[in-house]
Amino acid sequence: MPLSNYPKRSYAIDVNEFKGVNVNINKPQSKTEERKLDGLIVAAADANKLPICVMIENAAFSGVRPQSGLASASLVYEMIVEGGITRLMAVYSGEQTDPIGPVRSARDTYLEFASELDCMYTHAGGSYTASQALWDLHMKDLDALREPKYFWRDPNKVSPHNLFTKTGNLEEAAINGHSWKNEPTYTAWLWREDNKNRKQSGEEGYVSDVSIEFGGAYNVEYKFNYENNNYERLNGGVNHIDDNTGKVLTVRKVIVEKVPPGWYLEGKGRINFAVTGEGEAYIFQEGEMIKGKWKKPNRLARTMFYDEDGDEIEFVRGNAWIEIVPEGYGFTWQ
Q1: Is residue 6 part of a domain?
Q2: Residue 19 lies in a domain
Q3: Mean local confidence (pLDDT), 136-147
């Protein structure tokens, strides 16, 4: 008999029978996640890659600025290293950029931040004390002077300010060169969505400009761009450009850590700062300033940030520049 001739039947379903039953067995898993380092939403496979830390020169010598690759970094740390000169440590976690540099030598204080991220610390040689610490602490150490195949020198620039690499080379060095494949276990910061009702110019609490007086060509300024909800960086009184893009560097959040005066290490006026412990912190995001504290109980602990009530600060998603400002250096906002 044809199927069409079978009598039609009505099947009543009591939905109460299915309460408490998992009916999402075949529900597709999320294909995107928060990236651990900066909170951006990325493919799940890219959410917790090994951070790659790269020491980048910031000396005001001819041919150093503009640097390459800073715009693609999730985090950038800046502090004085010697003679009033600042140096940068850019941290990458999946963004691709070519080239990165100029790559320069290791310095002691940066190892504290590299340690808390358990990153691959990329540099070209280093001070005696930093080189010894890298060895003693068994860090993930990629030294261009020992493994030059991952780097190259630009013949159009003067050595030693002409050493470059790229993220593809560094990922190759980490995974195939050293088998550093385990997922990182550092503590992530808290993330939040943008505030659609953020303060506007003229409102109480609105901050449009942040200035740090490292001195002369190393003075830093961040100007808030309300339309783009980010900060444009100036270095030495001029726009700080990424040579890869030709555009001014933009920053989603600026974090200022106040630290005690530093102490001098062996030779050449090199200086170290105490970035473990706790101290005042100032966070600038979305045109506002949050005053609070930074806390880092030991070398391996992630630096965390808290407001004046002791609550952990929630950061907007995207890149950050962390400025280490010692006592005695000017720091203002307006």
Answers
A1: no
A2: no
A3: 97
